[in-house]
Design brief:
With about 260 residues, the chain is of the alpha+beta class. The protein has two domains: about 1-135, Alpha-Beta Plaits (2-Layer Sandwich); about 155-260, Beta Barrel (Elongation Factor Tu (Ef-tu), domain 3). It has helices at about 20-25, 70-85, 130-140, 180-190, and strands at about 1-5, 10-15, 40-45, 50-60, 60-70, 90, 100-105, 110-115, 115-120, 195-200, 210, 220-230, 235-240, 250, 255-260. Strands 10-13-12-11-14-15 form a six-stranded antiparallel beta barrel. The longest helix is centred in the first third of the chain and has 12 residues, at about 70-85.
């Protein structure tokens, strides 16, 4: 299945200092990117909160940054602010190249994202499916998080499981904005919340809260960050308190709307 990712923008970073500059800005080890793979990165502010999640890959020695359209101006503004005297160019290629999500297929030149998912960049429009929900559902099944403008600068990488198996964070690279906070959480503490996959027999929406009976927490135990609704049911990702994963979980204030955690 090939799906046009119309909701994503694409920036190109090129020039002699491109790699070292991105290495100083993003959470993962940019030096490990090659022509075949794609790397998930968090772009954090100085408190360690994620501004945007960015897919970084290379084509012909140039770096490309794929991110949600709604966060493009914010990210572009910060990159231009910090590049200072670096010898590089940052250009918006959103209208020059097509981005496609690839599910369970092999295409020459595609970049592996995670498990059965990849992306493909093309100069021309391809035959594709318009069912964006299929892409979202596969991202959710692979527990691949997304940060929209609603959640920008709210979560640390650990809350979205980016530290697990080095999915989106390297603890062996140099400094980047928020690195000290992210590293301190990794070495000195254990996250009270993590990202989990849930299902429900009713529609759920981004920003909905998850609660448990008799919780003593002063705020909700979880929050929906990515969701797909189909036939009156939902499959979604939410941050959630790890100590409550075995409890009865309900949506918002309705104790009759029970959601189910997927433990795979």
């Amino acid at each position: 299945m090939i799906i046009h990712l119309k909701n994503r923008s694409l920036l190109r970073v090129s020039g002699p200092d491109a790699e070292s500059f991105l290495q100083s800005q993003f959470s993962n080890d940019i030096s490990k990117i090659n022509e075949q793979n794609l790397q998930l990165n968090a772009y954090c502010q100085y408190q360690g909160k994620i501004i945007a999640l960015i897919w970084v890959f290379k084509i012909d020695a140039n770096f490309y940054l794929s991110l949600p359209k709604e966060l493009k101006n914010s990210v572009l503004g910060k990159l231009n602010l910090y590049k200072m005297m670096s010898n590089l160019q940052i250009e918006d290629y959103s209208e020059d190249l097509y981005q496609y999500g690839v599910v369970d297929e092999k295409i020459d030149g595609m970049k592996n994202l995670i498990n059965n998912l990849a992306i493909f960049i093309s100069q021309k429009k391809l035959n594709h499916d318009d069912d964006h929900n299929s892409w979202e559902l596969n991202c959710i099944k692979n527990e691949l998080p997304e940060v929209t403008s609603k959640f920008s600068e709210r979560y640390t990488p650990q809350l979205l499981n980016l530290d697990i198996d080095s999915l989106g964070v390297s603890f062996n690279k140099g400094c980047y904005p928020g690195q000290e906070v992210v590293a301190r959480m990794h070495y000195l503490g254990k996250p009270k919340r993590r990202l989990f996959r849930f299902t429900s027999d009713f529609n759920v929406f981004i920003g909905d809260t998850l609660n448990i009976l008799n919780s003593k927490s002063l705020k909700s135990s979880g929050e929906v960050i990515r969701v797909v609704n189909f036939n009156g049911k939902s499959d979604f990702l939410a941050t959630f308190e790890t100590r409550h994963i075995c409890d009865s979980i309900y949506l918002n204030d309705n104790q009759n709307q029970i959601v189910n955690i997927i433990d795979e």
